[in-house]
Automatic annotation (TrEMBL):
Low complexity compositional bias, start-end: 1-13
PANTHER family according to UniProt: SERINE/THREONINE-PROTEIN KINASE TNNI3K-RELATED
Pfam families tied to this protein: Pkinase
SUPFAM superfamilies in the cross-refs: Protein kinase-like (PK-like)
Annotated ranges, domain Protein kinase: 99-392
Swiss-Prot/TrEMBL keywords: Kinase, Transferase
Keyword Kinase: yes
UniProt-listed InterPro entries: Kinase-like_dom_sf (IPR011009), Prot_kinase_dom (IPR000719), Ser/Thr_Kinases-Pseudokinases (IPR051681)
GO molecular function, one term: protein serine/threonine kinase activity
Positions of region (Disordered): 1-69
Name by which UniProt lists this protein: Kinase
Lineage: Eukaryota, Sar, Stramenopiles, Oomycota, Saprolegniomycetes
Length: 395
C-alpha cells in the first residue's frame, strides 16, 4: 500500500517514512450486491467488492481473505510422489503383450462354485466333477444355440455341450440354465434308452461344460424318411416300446422331459435301438427350470400357452406325435407348417387344428388317446406302455 499523493506537492507536506497511512475513519460501508444494509454489529467480516482501478486512492490495508473458489482437478499440479504412486498401482494390472488381445471378457471369467450362477451344482461336485485338462481333441459340430462337439476323455469319445461366449446375455443365461438342468437330470438318470450323463466341469474361459455319452446314430425322422419299407412288426413297434420305457422311467423319477420330438430321438448305428437325448428342458421337483423348450409343433397345447399346469401328460402328447411319425413316416402338420409357422402354433393352442390319424393304423386308437386336447383326458405313460405291449403281441 503506497502513501497518499497529490498533484500539488507544494501545498501538502509528505508524511515521514516511518508513519503509515491510516484508514479513513467513519467510512460508510458499501452495500452488498443484493442491496442488504451493512450491519456493523455482525460478528462476521463483511464481503468486500472486487478491487477496481478507480479506487486506487481509497485503497486500504485489508486482512487476508480465504479464496472460496473451487479448484478443479485439472488446475491442480500433480506432485512427483503422486505420479509414482499412481504408476505403481497401474503396474499391478499390467498384462504381457501376447495376452492383451487374448484377454477373456466372458461372463464366466471369475465364476466359482460360491458364485450365484453355479452354487446349485456344488453338491454334485464330488461325484460328477471332470478334470477339464483330461478332455482333449475337441471338434466342434454345427449348433444353433450352444457350442457342441466331440472330444476324447480317457481314450473314449464323448459329447460336450458348453456355453456360447459370443451369444447375447439373455441367450447366455438361458443356455446356462439349460446346461444346469442337464447336469441335475443326468445325475439322477441311468437308463439304457437315455443318453448316459458322464459329468461336468467349469473353467474360467469356457464356463460350464456338460459331458455325456457320444451316441453314434441317426435321427429317427431321417431313418423313417430314408426307409419307407419299414413295418410296424419290425422294428417300429420296438422303437415305440423303447421310447415308452424311457418316458415311464423319467416319470417315475418325477421328471418331465418336455422336449420329446424328432430332434431328440436317435437310432443307434450299432444296436439299432432308441436313445433319448436333450434333457436340458426337463422339469423336476428338486430343481426348478424357468426355461421351457422353444415352441414347436411337437409341443402340447398347454406348453405352448405357457401355463404353470405342466405335468408328465405333456410328454404323452408328444409321444402320440411320435407314434404318428412312425406310422406315416412324415412330420406332423407338414403341410400347414410350410405356410405359416406362427399361425400353425396358434391353431394348435386354440385346438382348431388336430393331427390327422390314419384309421388303418394298428396304433390309431392309442394315438387318439394320447393326442387329447385336455391333459387330464390323456392316459399315463404306464398305461400307454401296457397298451403298446398288447398291440405288439397282436402284430
Amino acid at each position: 500500500m503506497g502513501s497518499c499523493c497529490s498533484s500539488s506537492t507544494s501545498s501538502v507536506s509528505l508524511p515521514p517514512p516511518t508513519i503509515h497511512c491510516q484508514a479513513k475513519e467513519n467510512t460508510q460501508p458499501r452495500n452488498l450486491p443484493n442491496k442488504v444494509p451493512y450491519d456493523l454489529s455482525a460478528s462476521r467480516e463483511p464481503t468486500r467488492e472486487p478491487f477496481d482501478e478507480g479506487d486506487e486512492e481509497d485503497s486500504v490495508v485489508s486482512p487476508k481473505r480465504h479464496n472460496t473458489r473451487e479448484l478443479s482437478y485439472n488446475s491442480r499440479k500433480l506432485r512427483s510422489s503422486t505420479v509414482r504412486r499412481m504408476y505403481g498401482n497401474l503396474k499391478k494390472y499390467a498384462l504381457p503383450v501376447d495376452q492383451v488381445f487374448n484377454r477373456d471378457i466372458s461372463p464366466d471369467r471369475f465364476v466359482t462354485f460360491t458364485s450365484y450362477e453355479y452354487k446349485e451344482l456344488a453338491p454334485l461336485q464330488h461325484e460328477w466333477w471332470i478334470d477339464p485338462t483330461a478332455i482333449d481333441n475337441f471338434q466342434e459340430t454345427p449348433s444353433t444355440t450352444m457350442v457342441c462337439g466331440t472330444a476324447t476323455l480317457d481314450e473314449q469319445t464323448v459329447f460336450i455341450k458348453r456355453l456360447n461366449r459370443n451369444a447375447s446375455s439373455n441367450k447366455l443365461s438361458r443356455s446356462r440354465r439349460i446346461l444346469m438342468t442337464e447336469v441335475h437330470v443326468g445325475a439322477k438318470v441311468e437308463h439304457p434308452y437315455i443318453a448316459t450323463f458322464l459329468g461336468f466341469c467349469i473353467t474360467p474361459y469356457e464356463g460350464l461344460s456338460c459331458v455325456s455319452e457320444y451316441v453314434e446314430g441317426t435321427l429317427l425322422s431321417d431313418v423313417l424318411v430314408n426307409s419307407p419299407q419299414l413295418e410296424w412288426k419290425q422294428p417300429k413297434i420296438n422303437w415305440a416300446l423303447q421310447l415308452a420305457q424311457a418316458l415311464v422311467y423319467l416319470h417315475d423319477q418325477k421328471i418331465s422331459h418336455r422336449n420329446v420330438k424328432n430332434d431328440t430321438i436317435l437310432v443307434t448305428a450299432k444296436t439299432c435301438n432308441i436313445k433319448l437325448i436333450g434333457c436340458g428342458h426337463a422339469a423336476m421337483e428338486s430343481f426348478e427350470n424357468h426355461h421351457p423348450p422353444i415352441a414347436s409343433e411337437w409341443s402340447a397345447p398347454e406348453l405352448l400357452q405357457g401355463t404353470q399346469d405342466i405335468s408328465d401328460k405333456t410328454d404323452v402328447y408328444s409321444f402320440g406325435l411320435i407314434l404318428l411319425l412312425l406310422d406315416t413316416h412324415k412330420l406332423p402338420f407338414e403341410m400347414e407348417k410350410s405356410r405359416n409357422h406362427h399361425e400353425l402354433l396358434m391353431k394348435i393352442v386354440t385346438g382348431s387344428i388336430k393331427p390327422i390319424i390314419p384309421a388303418s393304423s394298428p396304433v390309431a386308437n392309442l394315438m387318439t388317446e394320447c393326442l387329447q386336447y385336455v391333459p387330464t383326458h390323456r392316459p399315463s405313460m404306464k398305461v400307454v406302455y401296457t397298451k403298446l405291449q398288447q398291440i405288439a403281441a397282436q402284430l
